DNA sequence: CGGGGCGCAGAGAGCGCTCTCTGGCCCGGC
DNA sequence: GCCGGGCCAGAGAGCGCTCTCTGCGCCCCG
């Protein structure tokens, strides 16, 4: 089929009866080409099935037309699957008509993390998308210092990033807790996420916001987003506050863990204790009872990350370098239904 | 930090007091370098923070050190999230110490599918991994014809692939149905996957195998792996076989849909009808009751795909170009517990 | 002590593209 | 009618690397 080797730009030029420069101009959409020449070149490209060689182009332009999605997965609990898949779809969609390719880099250990830092700063990609970043990771800083545009998924703890996209974790958590308060709950505990991640801090703050606004306080225990830490957290909450009538878990898996403990103890959900989670993962719809949870627009977040990165690569000034997308509560049976006090 | 531009191989050679060729040999691990020269080169590389330019190398070697993972997601129902994430992790792990980068290509429409076919056959990647392939997709054939090594995740329907990795869908389905038979069930229906996908066919065959071995028959309805098709399938099964005492759904979402219908009808699970699914997704653990399901080793499958592809890229002969990995049943409450006939 | 062979190093070419610079052609103005 | 300017095309250089080929020096053997 392909005779020996793929056709080069030179071959196209020969066939079209023009010079290499003209072919290059046509390919790159330069206006300085006469209609006849353009026509001839396009026909030759078509006839030869010419595809430009990226390596050769990258060599001279110093752009690779590739961006990396870097996922640090040293602790797999952080890396919830629905989150991952949703974000990736959004990114892929956002990149689709930009001509940029997506390189997926999953660092599963510290070693790999270091190796990839070198790789990414080494002129191999035009930009980097980072998700599930851990507290104080210097990677985004190093990248920017080396002139590699970087967009973060999720706010980093501490530093103000050059550009990042996040869900409104604080607002979402606040909504969830306000929802519980609105249902008449008064002794509302929370199981937090890791406090070295901004997302954990934000969701705790949202919880605080709602309680404070209602003049309430409640017990706080710390988890790490995992189902198992949800179980431990629930046990601790019950020990500290036997009169608990609701719990807000900062992730769905933790909510699932909490619900398991409640069931084991024979505590009816939501009659005695209402439960709300965060993520609105597919699991939330299938728990017993179905879990009230905060939905975040994963695909939109991914798309927005791609948009920001592309703009930065093109050297455009960003009007809003930090984008926070709305979250909303999806109320289900784990909180709805009658509470003990109001019960029939 | 970086003064102007990154150091080139030439700069390293100058600093080490050797020629470019020697530096190249050191980098590529050629044995034909004296220890002293190698030492000097390595020091210079370290001092300069030299990172080879991939584009320049790719241009001359005609290898890109990049493989693509191509996901055709035109119908999103097929592309279950846990499947995706698990496989990717395996692939990433399998590629980790090969120096190959992973390009993620998600074709969300027919247009993109066609565009990427051109891209992938156009010397941009050294090999391609394909997952969730649809019946009769000519892409793998085209790729191989163009000399691009390809490894499939999941057997294609019809043609015998050059190399592919799959789970033992038939065996898994058979195990699940044997399990139901072993529990005393005799009127076992199935909701199949799409029959234009080999995975759908295999799981139906496994169901057949088990029934035939036990001298039974049962009603078959066709679904498309989606939750909604599981609901429809269950309704149809109940209509066709009111005495049904078990159902094997070829995917977890379909099993979930089926369970919803059973619950709506007030049919106790598993007392009257036992349910088994396929995938052992995280959802399976959280349904009510928890779902018996067939587990497939996703990460191992991904790793195996990577291994096969790397071997093919290196031109090694494959001893077993088609790898089928074992599946096993995870029995949970949706099938365990007492059946009607046996009382409690 | 001389010649042949081997092993390591360096010079040169070239991968396929872009980009700059020069040149040719045509048109308009004086 | 001649010259200047604008516009499009092509030639040339060079991006950073690999690979081949030549050459040099050393060692070993006769």
TrEMBL record, chains A, B:
The HTH lacI-type domain, residue ranges: 7-61
Entry keyword annotation includes ATP-binding: no
Keywords: DNA-binding, Transcription, Transcription regulation
GO molecular function: DNA binding
Keyword Transcription regulation: yes
InterPro entries tied to this protein: HTH_LacI, LacI/GalR-like_sensor, Lambda_DNA-bd_dom_sf, Peripla_BP_I
Pfam families named in the record: LacI (PF00356), Peripla_BP_3 (PF13377)
Record-given protein name: LacI family DNA-binding transcriptional regulator
Upper lineage: Bacteria, Bacillati, Actinomycetota, Actinomycetes, Streptosporangiales
